[in-house]
Design brief:
The complex is a heterodimer of chains A (409) and B (219).
Chain A (H helix, E strand, L loop, with lengths): L2 E2 L11 H4 L1 H11 L6 E6 L6 H15 L3 E6 L4 H14 L8 H17 L6 E5 L16 E5 L9 H11 L4 E4 L12 E3 L16 H10 L8 E5 L8 H12 L5 E7 L5 H14 L5 E6 L4 H10 L2 E4 L8 H8 L4 E4 L4 H4 L7 E3 L2 H13 L1 H18 L2 H18 L1
Parallel strand pairs in A: 2-3, 2-4, 4-5, 5-6, 6-7, 8-9, 8-11, 9-10, 11-12, 12-13
Antiparallel strand pairs in A: 1-3
Helix pairs in contact in A: 3-15, 4-5, 7-10, 8-9, 8-13, 11-14
Chain B lengths: L7 E17 L2 H10 L2 H14 L10 H9 L3 H8 L9 H18 L1 H4 L7 E17 L2 H10 L2 H15 L5 H8 L4 H8 L8 H18 L1
Antiparallel strand pairs in B: 1-2
Helix pairs in contact in B: 1-5, 2-8, 3-4, 7-11, 9-10
Classes of the chains: A alpha/beta (409), B alpha+beta (219).
């Protein structure tokens, strides 16, 4: 059965201290014409994954603005989620053998959910490909349907995209995380950045004593520069390249490197990459390879806050929200110019971009030599996140979208 | 205290960014895009970007200049594009004409650079604007100061920067009302001369409030 989720209240005023009362007043002003009007968010999972994490915070905040918003989760069996996982990977460009059976399974579950989900709100927001075919339930012109795509569609598997495009083209609009992730479509496409929550455990202020405890737990010296990359052990995050950049920096600065990411125990490829990382680290005691539990927001927060410089040397990236997490903490960031990273790191303004191991090393050395510039980049980065990548800004974008759709009709 | 007949009504603004169908991978393609994109696209990349990057000052003035600098490494052209000051324009058409002229002149002078691939493509986007009244108004300078002090960044941007196009005058909402509503022409001129390129929105607002305070002390 599909389910409607009941969420814990998040008082909007708690954000006023961080953002200013003017920003909260603005949200209320934009929401005023939408009070009491119905909105329905639909995705395919209540827990795990970035979409559920965002909706868990976004929906209660929208309720604070007196919007009548519901979050419904579609139901599906293992066969459905196997198919949609294949679709997900194929849309990212991975090889996939398209089979008629897969498309049938996809359509059957969407049809079943059309019978159980309300789908009668004035504004219906469908997240990602799994529920995309729910659009078949739309009664002509009766309400507004938009599709929020959280994945990179720049190089999709042709057959999967051709299949999905027939549904997507019938929405009133589609939202993408970056212009380069979008497709040519006959409907308006909007830029919707992913967002972080400044009050969540991963981003809230931490007591210095707690941060020191975390450093002590992993035997990290707080007196020497700390370079950190937080990401799973995946070749596309180039952890080996990070170690090579660190080795160049180490010739000039007595620094330490933290490579911290989710446990690789349930991911065969992750285990292989972890071994490659450990081999490259070659027992260097200043390289800390940390396998974190799957959900360790406070540890991630503490390691980011303790860092001198945060690195994100990905070879390919989605949006790369770990960059925004670091920038929010006023950390100077050196990152690759891939995926959504250049949107967050405006070169020489909110961080430094690099295109190689050597470039990454040079930018780190530059920042270690010029701490005043590093501090300024961190400060600007914090403002950039505050203005563009916080959950409150995301809520504002939704309000603006709904007002725009309502105006159009 | 002097009170205006017509009150100043405080608004805020929010923008949706609509992704366009054009992109550029070279300077020549940038020129084609500039010639053909919508007015809303020029507005987005030259005006609205000042609101979304209000905390930057040195070296950031519009998205075209930033892309030319970061992705094509043509500092000279970037400087020329950055030097175009939106305060000099009361129409998008005039700004577009100058943007095109600057890029076209560069491509003519350096044809070998015009076709070189950039590191990342430039995507033309558009701003879709929604405004909302904040339910607050001012008739006196004191009320006006209070309203300005409490505005969000977007509200301040709306009245101080994007208003220039709306009014089709080389001024902003604040100066317009200070002059027309309260008859404070000198204050209006001083406010209009605050440099939005070398100040952040926060420091612009601080300067504006200081100018108002100086005026209040005179009264």
């Amino acid at each position: 059965m599909s389910e409607t989720l009941a969420l814990t209240r998040i008082p909007l005023d708690e954000y006023a201290e961080l953002l200013g009362t003017g920003e909260i007043e603005e949200l209320r002003a934009l929401a005023k014409p939408l009070r009491g009007r119905s909105m329905e968010m639909i995705n395919s999972t209540a827990v795990g994954g970035g979409v559920a994490e965002i909706l868990n915070r976004l929906v209660p905040l929208a309720e604070e603005l007196e919007l009548n918003v519901k979050w419904n989760v579609m139901s599906g069996g293992e066969d459905f989620f196997e198919v949609t996982k294949s679709f997900h990977n194929a849309l990212h460009g991975a090889p996939y053998h398209a089979s008629a059976k897969d498309f049938e399974v996809f359509l059957a579950y969407n049809e079943r959910n059309r019978g159980t989900l309300p789908l009668d709100a004035e504004f219906v927001v469908i997240h990602d490909p799994q529920p995309a075919a729910l659009i078949d339930a739309r009664k002509s012109g009766s309400n507004h349907w938009v599709w929020r795509c959280h994945i990179d569609l720049s190089h999709p598997h042709r057959a999967v995209w051709d299949f999905l495009e027939k549904f997507v083209s019938r929405y009133d609009g589609a939202m993408f995380s970056s212009p380069q992730f979008s497709r040519q479509l006959p409907i308006p496409q909007y830029l919707f950045y992913p967002a972080i929550d400044p009050l969540s455990e991963k981003n809230c202020d931490l007591d210095a004593v707690f941060v020191a405890q975390i450093l002590a737990r992993y035997n990290i010296d707080p007196q020497r520069p700390i370079l950190t990359q937080i990401s799973r052990f995946d070749r596309l995050k180039d952890p080996v390249g990070v170690i090579r950049a660190y080795r160049i920096v180490k010739r000039y600065f007595d620094c330490q490197l933290i490579l911290a990411g989710g446990s690789a125990s349930d991911d065969p490829e992750g285990s292989i990459v972890l071994k490659e990382v450990l081999r490259e680290a070659d027992n260097d005691t200043d390289i800390k390879v940390i396998e974190l539990p799957a959900w360790a927001p406070l540890e991630v927060n503490a390691l980011q806050r303790a860092s001198t410089i945060v690195i994100q040397k990905s070879l390919r990236e989605g949006f790369g929200l770990t960059v925004s997490e670091a920038l929010w903490k006023k950390k100077p960031v050196v990152a690759s110019a891939v995926g959504g990273i250049p949107i967050q790191v405006i070169h020489k303004h909110t961080g430094l971009l690099a295109h190689s191991v050597e470039g990454t090393a040079y930018q780190i050395r530059f920042l270690l030599s010029h701490p005043e510039i590093a501090a300024k980049l961190g400060e600007h980065g914090h403002h950039h996140v505050k203005e563009n990548f916080l959950i409150t800004q995301k809520l504002k974008r939704y309000l603006t979208l709904f007002l725009t759709l309502a105006r159009g009709s | 205290m002097n009170a205006a007949e017509t009150p100043f009504e405080f608004f805020t603004v929010s923008y949706l960014t609509r992704i366009g169908n054009q992109s550029a991978g070279t300077l020549a393609e940038l020129l084609t895009g500039l010639e053909n994109c919508s007015d809303a696209s020029i507005f987005h990349h030259a005006y609205q970007t000042l609101g979304s990057h209000h905390f930057l000052t040195e070296g950031f003035s519009n998205d075209f200049a930033q892309w030319v600098l970061a992705d094509t490494n043509r500092n000279d052209l970037a400087e020329q594009l950055a030097a175009l000051d939106i305060r000099d324009y009361v129409s998008i058409a005039a700004l577009r004409s100058d943007l095109c002229r600057v890029v076209a002149d560069f491509c003519t002078a350096f044809p070998h650079f015009a076709g070189q691939s950039a590191l990342e493509r430039f995507y033309f986007c558009e701003s879709v604007e929604v405004t909302a009244p904040l339910g607050r108004s001012a008739r006196t300078l004191d009320e006006f100061r209070d309203g300005v002090a409490h505005l969000s960044h977007a509200g301040f941007y709306f009245h101080f920067i994007s208003s220039r196009l709306r009014l089709q005058l080389q001024t902003n909402d604040f100066s317009h009302w200070l002059s027309d509503g309260l008859g404070l022409q000198t204050l209006a001129d001083s406010v209009n001369h605050i440099d939005i390129y070398t100040n952040t929105l926060d420091s612009t607002r601080s300067k504006l409030l200081r100018l108002i305070d100086r005026e209040r002390r005179k009264a």
